[in-house]
Amino acid sequence: MDLLLLSNGKVAGNTKVMEFALPAITELLTRKNVKNVVVIPYAVIRGSHDDRTAMVAESLSHLDVNVTGLHRAEDPVEAIRQADAIIVSGGNTWVLNKTLHDQGLIGPIQQAVMQRGVAYIGWSAGSVISAPTIRTTNDMCIVSAAITPSLGFVPFQINAHYIDATIEGHMGETRDERIEEFLIVNPHQSVIGIPEGSWLAVSGETMTYESANEKPLHWFRLNQERKIVAPGTDVTELMALDC
Predict the structure, then answer these.
(1) Which of 105, 141, 165, 175 could in theory staple to 100 by disulfide, Cβ–Cβ 3.0 to 4.6 A?
(2) How does pLDDT run across 79-110, given as a tens digit for each residue?
(3) Which one is catalytic: 139, 190, 211, 218?
């Protein structure tokens, strides 16, 4: 598989979506000789699917690729079958995952990425759905039917936009406390917190952790001290987790 799982779409100073990871994205799409990029913008709620697709096209304008939005396809399943690369936008994870299930796209995307070697790039919600379930998303479940199983490209749960912080005067649970609650209920699983400006890169059998701002990855397991992982580290061991 070839995956780039970004925590978010932009960091401070960026003018284009995915700009902070653009060198890695360019390398991947060039190496795989990608010509046909399909953007899945279903997670976008407070905006236009066309606008989000156009944002991705602008970021990739330096490459000789054709960028189309899956929402415009007459046959979305066939569009996935014809794709050389799939890019999944951030937004609301619940809406994104439910839409993929409703349109019968989970299987075709899995086949494209895991069997045909189609490149997969996601940010925020687009990264969260690469886990076995979306139960560690930060998003509100704004749809009436809660569907949690997702693509399962990686065996661990992902928490995007991870922040190790407390807010003065805030009496609700911290991000760490929410993750701890998940692990108490799901004691054999791991949660990977990827902060802003960082991503997981899978190439074949190898996975590395990368960051544009030197922020570390956080690996949470029940009753174990969290593991802090520096950018540039080989984290292939995460792909062997039995979750």
Answers:
(1) 105
(2) 999 999 999 999 999 999 999 999 999 999 99
(3) 139
SS3 annotation, 128-176: HCCCCECCCCCCCCCCCCCCCECCCCCCCEEEECCCCCCCCCCCCCCHH
pTM: 0.96
Instruction: Find all residues with CB under 8 Å of 90, minimum gap 6, and list them.
Output: 8, 9, 43, 122, 123, 124, 125, 126, 160
Q: Among the options 124, 130, 150, 190, which is catalytic?
A: 124
Q: Is 124 a catalytic residue?
A: yes
Q: Which of 49, 71, 161, 218 is catalytic?
A: 161
CA 16, CA 232: separation in Å to the nearest integer?
24
Domains and CATH numbers, the chain: 2-240 (3.40.50.880)
**Spatial strand order in the sheet of 233-234:** 66-69, 36-40, 85-88, 119-123, 2-6, 198-203, 206-211, 233-234
Give the residue from 79, 69, 80 showing the smallest Cα distance to 108: 80
Per the annotation, the verdict on 190 as an active-site residue is no
